[in-house]
Amino acid sequence: MEDKACLTLAIESSCDETSAAVLSGGRIILSNVISTQIPVHQKFGGVVPEIASRKHIANIMPVIDEALRQAQVSLTDINQIGVTYGPGLVGALLVGVSAAKALAFSLDIPLIGVNHLEGHIFANFLAHPELKPPFVALVVSGGHTSLVHVKDYNTFYLIGQTRDDAAGEAFDKVARVMGLPYPGGPQIDKLAKLGNADAIAFPQALSGKGNFEFSFSGLKSAVLNYLHNAEQKGEIVNKADVAASFQKAVIAVLIDKALQAVENAGLTKLVLAGGVAANSALEKQLKASTEAAGVEFYYPNMILCTDNAAMIGCRAYYQSLMGDFANLYLNAIPNLKLTDKE
């Protein structure tokens, strides 16, 4: 039974966003403050872990204070604290975990350690108040690509995941080689709108029926080889065509496997989660494909696609209902996996 009077303070610092949020119950966002570091890391072409950690240290308390101010509550009103403890950059994670432990100890309130990937899935509960398990979640981010059968709020089954590069990682690496600014995903999405998606036939790995694992390393290499070969021959490359053809290959695999997974699980709902959920072509084509297949499709709005503390607070709340609390020995786990939960 949901307790709407329960106030959760959530903290997220897994990569280059420092975020804090206050939630009433599991699904009502009172505040969701995000301080991004993208401009800081842009000149390096990617996130520099040491710089990210330092920025988190400077930002964490002002962001928490602002989240409390916007929610119009004080620290003493908070009933529990949820924090991302993995996966992510170890130094960045430690800033959030340390702040959460200090606050939980000083306020003598429960602490909840949240898996960042589970948080991404739970962003959909905030965007869609009517959404309930069971469903299949397609988690697509910079570091992960997974299909998860969400049986209920605290029971998950990992259907399949990437063997190598994640989809978002492939987007960023291809964008970097093409000379596009960081972060590369949105740049590829924007450029692809100007290109012909059928111009170049890039490979789609592990596309056999019933295979729910992903692999984007070969696709990434195929794009790099195409660009290098053209450069060596002195040929002019249509970057928009490359972006569109590359994006088409990624999206085709994601949609095909996601719909197969829904059918295989005997379900009727598909949920999209993770930073790459913000990709306009993926969202548009998934809408069309799920509609044609008679599958209900859910995805979070833009602010809930990217890293944010509100999704962490939502996940923390449902963990608290199961008594899934952490102690003050909670540590950052940078390679934390999204594993089966029964």
Secondary structure blueprint with pairings:
Layout: E1 7-12, E2 17-24, E3 28-36, H1 38-42, H2 49-71, E4 80-86, H3 90-107, E5 111-115, H4 116-127, E6 135-140, E7 145-152, E8 155-161, H5 167-177, H6 184-192, H7 217-232, H8 239-264, E9 269-273, H9 280-293, E10 296-298, H10 302-305, H11 309-321
Parallel strand pairs: 1-4, 4-5, 6-9, 9-10
Antiparallel strand pairs: 1-2, 2-3, 6-7, 7-8
Helix pairs in contact: 2-3, 4-11, 5-6, 5-7, 6-8, 8-9
Could you provide a short overview of the structure?
With 342 residues, the chain is α/β, with parallel strands linked by helices.
Order of SSEs: EEEHHEHEHEEEHHHHEHEHH
* Helix amount: 40-55%
The number of helices is 11
Strand order of the largest sheet: 3-2-1-4-5
* Terminus-to-terminus distance: 20 Å
Average pLDDT reading: 93
| Largest sheet report | 5 strands, mixed
Based on CA inertia axes, which overall geometry fits? globular
Hey, roughly how much beta strand do the residues contain?
15-25%
